[in-house]
Structure formats: C-alpha cells, structure tokens
TrEMBL record:
Domain Homing endonuclease LAGLIDADG residues, every copy: 22-177
GO molecular function, one term: endonuclease activity
Organism: Lobochlamys culleus
Protein's recorded name: Putative LAGLIDADG homing endonuclease
Annotated gene: orf214
GO BP terms: Group II intron splicing; mRNA cis splicing, via spliceosome; photosystem I assembly
Record flagged with keyword Chloroplast: yes
Record-linked SUPFAM superfamilies: Homing endonucleases
Keywords attached to this entry: Chloroplast, Endonuclease, Hydrolase, Nuclease, Plastid
PANTHER family: PENTATRICOPEPTIDE REPEAT-CONTAINING PROTEIN OTP51, CHLOROPLASTIC (PTHR47539)
Amino acid sequence: MSNTTEIRKYKEGLRLTDLQRDLILGLMLGDGHLETQNKGHTYRLLVEQSYPFHESYAMHLYDVLKPLVLTPPKKVKNDKAIFFRTLSHQSFRFYANLFYKDGKKSVPKFIHKYLNDRVLAYWYMDDGALKGKNPSGISRTGKRLHTEGFTKLDVERLCFALNFLGIETTINKQTKVVKDLVKTYYLLNITAKGEKVLTERIKPYVIESMQYKL
C-alpha cells in the first residue's frame, strides 16, 4: 500500500488479536519499544533482534504482527541485527500509557494482573536465559531474566509478580564499570524450584528456535 488514503482506511479496520496483545506485553517487558510521532495520539512498536542468532525469532514476531507491518524486517547495524516497525496505530496507546512514564519505559505497579503463560513465554524468549555456570565452572540450575534496563523499583515489581504467580524468583544486584562510572543493575534469578513452574507454563508457547533456553 502506497496511497495515504488506502493506508488510513486499512488502519481503521485493524484490531489487535489476543495473540498480538500477549506478544506486545511480553516484548514491552523485554526489548520492545514504542514511539509516537504525533504527541501520543498513536504509537508504533519497534522490534530489533540480534542477527543471525535470533533471526527465526524475529521472523516469528513479524509473522504474528504482519497485519500491522508495511515493510518486512531488514538487517541493520552492519548486519548484526534484524529490525522492523509496525504502523502507527491507536491500539498501541494502551501499552504506551501502561509502560511509559515521563517518556521512559517502566513497569506498571500492578503488572501481575497482565501476565499469563503466553505473555511470560514472550518475555522469556526476549530476555530470558539459562544461568549457565558459576565462576568455578559448575553448572547452575535455574533461569535468569535480564532486566538491566529497568530501575530497582521496576525489578521489584516484576519479582513480586513472578512470585505471586508461583514462580520463585529473587533479585540479583550487579555492578559494572561503564565509561569510568560504576553502574548498578538488577536482574531476576528464577530458582531451581521456580524454573520447573516457569518451564511448565511457557513451554507450549516457546517456538522451536528458542527451545534451547528451556
């Protein structure tokens, strides 16, 4: 579609499906971002994944959101990432109001009310990982959610939400030196006990290329 009138009429008929809503919620807890070009009347979703490692996942996201996308995914950042954006649409305004405060992404106070198994799956596919090995080389049980982009309060809300859902989770504080400045980050550690609950809940929704994270 290249005609502005055609695009406007097309957007008027768009309605988000339940799958698209769950995907958007999961991405907003992960690496997804929304932007507006008209002072908040409509928003569009920006999706970026590493390439080629997460190309299959990016294409899955594109397939689900395809009715909302005009331009297929393209490689960016010297072919190290794959990116696409949706149309600007008023349906995204709900998520912008939910996740943005003073222009910065944050976690809603009652985020636990919005989480279901499929939302958890998209969040985990986006930002989750196995814990790997400890400094002694011994494999550790449990999973991790990389929440470094959120504040301590945000991560505390997410930790509460997961525990509320029966997924035993703790907060791991880390410090890193970035450009001679010491910065503090907070990650979510899902315990061995919590891992079993999480895996059981999200496994039906984790796509094949992301099964390695389970």
